[in-house]
Amino acid sequence: MSKVIAVANQKGGVGKTTSAVNIAAWLGAKGKRTLLVDIDPQGNSTSGVGLDRRSLKTTTYDILINGAKGADAVVKTAFEKLSILPSSADLAAAEIELADIPAREAVLKNALAPLRAEYDFILIDCPPSLGLITTNALNAADSVLIPVQCEYYALEGLSQLMNSVQAVKRRYNERLELEGVLLTMYDGRLNLTQQVVTEIKKYFPRKVFSTVIPRTVRLSEAPSFGQPILYYDRSNKGSQAYGALVDEILKKNR
Ligand SMILES: Nc1ncnc2c1ncn2[C@@H]1O[C@H](COP(=O)(O)OP(=O)(O)OP(=O)(O)O)[C@@H](O)[C@H]1O
């Protein structure tokens, strides 16, 4: 049975996609059968692992809205042990269309259920909102990983996110737990960064990963080559950080 991890934060641009893609790629490289699920209409995970979004036949939109089976949408990537359920731009409409679907909060969970035996890890890249799509991800997940950007307003919105997690836990998915809080775009030279880190650790005692992801331009370049950082520039500090993070996740999930 796989472990399903939702990568969520309703705040935009905090490193959800970068983290989902690179954690998934490292899990695959470390021998774990891994499925990345892109439910963000922007589709940056999909293009980030080298898929041309225009050539896709079945996407997570079809899974959420048209009753497509998970297996029909799975695409093998060029990377070791890494497959993806890609997204398409029409997913933007799914947030509204889902409202009319029976058991609308459990569509993704039901679609992933038959795939869980085939993968060791399933990573879900969530959109930057707390709507029905993110609710579907939290309902389908065993745990949630929250990337937090090391910046002044980092804590803003986190209580709202934790309220959503608690609500899903209460109503649909009592096993849902917090996998951890990941500090992204870390720049240790800045005083502000240190202050933010202290604040976040106070807010989430013992839940902040000891690995932090440094700010590095290579991490922002890699997606334009359709490659996770580990294949684009393996020895880069961002690549090594995601590798160390995956070791931390594997240790915790042994
Ligand atoms: N550690 C990092 N160093 C430098 N740039 C980064 C780093 N992490 C992410 N970025 C860049 O910051 C931007 C936002 O990151 P990303 O797309 O991963 O965030 P997101 O939370 O998924 O965004 P959205 O909410 O829009 O889906 C991207 O341009 C990405 O390349």
Draw up the topology in text:
Layout: E1 3-7, H1 16-29, E2 34-38, H2 44-48, H3 60-65, H4 70-73, E3 75-76, E4 82-85, H5 91-97, H6 107-112, E5 121-125, H7 132-140, E6 143-149, H8 158-171, E7 177-184, H9 191-203, H10 217-221, H11 229-232, H12 237-252
Parallel strand pairs: 1-5, 1-6, 2-4, 2-5, 6-7
Antiparallel strand pairs: 3-4
Helix pairs in contact: 1-12
The structure holds adenosine-5'-triphosphate (ATP).
Adenosine-5'-triphosphate (ATP) binds next to helix 1 and helix 10.
Domain AAA: 2-177
Protein name: ParA family protein
Mean pLDDT: 95
Low-confidence segments, ≥5 residues, pLDDT <50? none
**Distance between the ends:** 13 Å
* Full CATH superfamily name: P-loop containing nucleotide triphosphate hydrolases
Helix/strand structural class? alpha/beta
- CATH architecture name: 3-Layer(aba) Sandwich
The number of strands is: 7
- Please describe the biggest sheet, giving its number of strands, its sense, and whether it closes into a barrel: 7 strands, mixed
- Name the bound molecules: adenosine-5'-triphosphate
Number of domains: 1
Q: What is the CATH T-level topology?
A: Rossmann fold
**Tally of DSSP helical segments:** 12
Radius of gyration over alpha carbons? Answer: 17 Å
What is the H/E order?
Answer: EHEHHHEEHHEHEHEHHHH
* Helix percentage range: 40-55%
Can you identify the CATH class? Alpha Beta
Shape: globular
Q: Biggest sheet: strands side by side, in what order?
A: 3-4-2-5-1-6-7
Question: How would you describe this protein?
Answer:
It holds the Pfam family AAA_31. The protein has 254 residues and is α/β, with parallel strands linked by helices. It has a single domain (3-252), classed as P-loop containing nucleotide triphosphate hydrolases (Rossmann fold, 3-Layer(aba) Sandwich). It contains 12 helices and 7 strands. The chain has helices at 16-29, 44-48, 60-65, 70-73, 91-97, 107-112, 132-140, 158-171, 191-203, 217-221, 229-232, 237-252, and strands spanning 3-7, 34-38, 75-76, 82-85, 121-125, 143-149, 177-184. A 7-stranded mixed sheet has the order 3-4-2-5-1-6-7, with helices on both faces. A hairpin with a 5-residue loop joins β3 (75-76) and β4 (82-85). It is globular, with a radius of gyration of 17 Å. The protein starts with a strand and ends with a helix. The mean pLDDT is 95. The structure holds adenosine-5'-triphosphate (ATP). Adenosine-5'-triphosphate binds next to α1 and α10.
